[in-house]
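hey so u asked for the seq, here:
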Amino acid sequence: MIAQDHPYFFLASIFAKEGAVFNLSRYVYKKDSLFDQRRIVSISGSELTPQWVNEVISSLEPAEELALHSTITLKDCIMHIPMIDFATTQLSPLMIERMSCFLPKEVMRNIAFFDSGRSYHAYSLVPLLHKEWIDFMGRLLLTNPRDGKHLIDTRWVGHRLIGGFCSLRWSNNTGNYIRCPSRVAAINEAKKVAAV
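ran it, structure tokens below
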């Protein structure tokens, strides 16, 4: 059963958009590969319930995980949920402040951070048009300091630009990970200062 700190509950207001269609995938991670093996499922926001997520997670094959894709189909328009995969095991207020210098203010005002077990994930409630999403992905790369430890997972950005959508894990089925992503209250409080 997904817990109340699972990303689903932060994103519930996006899933409630009338007529919106979302993509999730059952995927098999292969280290250092160009593409992941994915079985994509499209579902309307009204059908994307915690019960549905739990049923899919329960039915995953031993090597599979469940991921949400960034794409939202609204009538004839494709938009993206801003997503971030971090390369660090610790997020500090200084790192969040650095992100605020590079990422759109509205995205940062509506962002939440999640501990994914070995690093962090983030989602924002401000959907982006495809062109804005490309700009956002470039800004993520520029967030990494020129000299120093990377904040953003650059390989993830590369994979996602090639794929044409972002994707973040929602399950912990294979044993490759420490936990399901869970919202981190302290970091989410710290980002309020940086986003003002």
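The mean pLDDT is 91. The longest strand covers residues 65-74.
lmk if thats what u needed
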